[in-house]
Amino acid sequence: MDVSSQIGLMVINTIAGLYLFIVVLRFLLQAARANFYNPISQFVVKATAPVLNPLRKIVPGFGGFDWASIVLAVVVQMLAIGLSLLVAGYGTPVEKIIIWSLLGTVGLFLKLYFWGILIMVISSWIAPQSSNPALELLHQIIEPVMKPIRKVMPDMGGLDLSPIIAFLLINICNVILANFVMKTGAPGFIIGL
């Protein structure tokens, strides 16, 4: 692959990756019933509204989840993969691009939770009572996943080991996902994998 192809892939992955992160965050904000008056939430809503509002007319929400956000994430992933393959000079059937997009979106959720939990653990050591809007929002997104784990865990006298269990579960999901990715022959530039 020549230099211009590498630069093209880097630009596509950076722009698509940032927008995918915002779209996945929009889904998680609504799923977790996070505070939409948070300044970061307001940014996420404004950044995704121009595309999501028309898409919601076609893909309605169901079960309290914003399925239009998931559809948008998969479509953005498909566009990023298609453009990346075009820049790299590869040709691939559309079915594989759809499968890779779904796998990449799942991987993006796993990465977001992994890094979110890690940030929450570190911030609890450094600034346990912080009222930073980003940390408050992250706590609201992460807590619905951590709460069921905490209910199952025995009381450890103030020591919270639930992040270790969450990391273990995320890594198990990553191993399963990596197995699927290997079977599909996905290229290495898919966002989230």
TrEMBL record:
Q: What keywords were assigned to this record?
A: Membrane, Transmembrane, Transmembrane helix
The UniProt entry, under InterPro entries, shows:
CCB3/YggT
- Which cellular components does GO assign to this protein? membrane
Q: Which domain of life is it from?
A: Bacteria
- Keyword Nuclease found: no
Q: Which residues cross the membrane?
A: 7-29, 67-90, 97-127, 161-181
Name the family the entry cites: Belongs to the YggT family.
PANTHER family, A to Z: PROTEIN COFACTOR ASSEMBLY OF COMPLEX C SUBUNIT B CCB3, CHLOROPLASTIC-RELATED, YLMG HOMOLOG PROTEIN 2, CHLOROPLASTIC
Q: What is this protein called?
A: YggT family protein
Protein's organism: Bermanella marisrubri
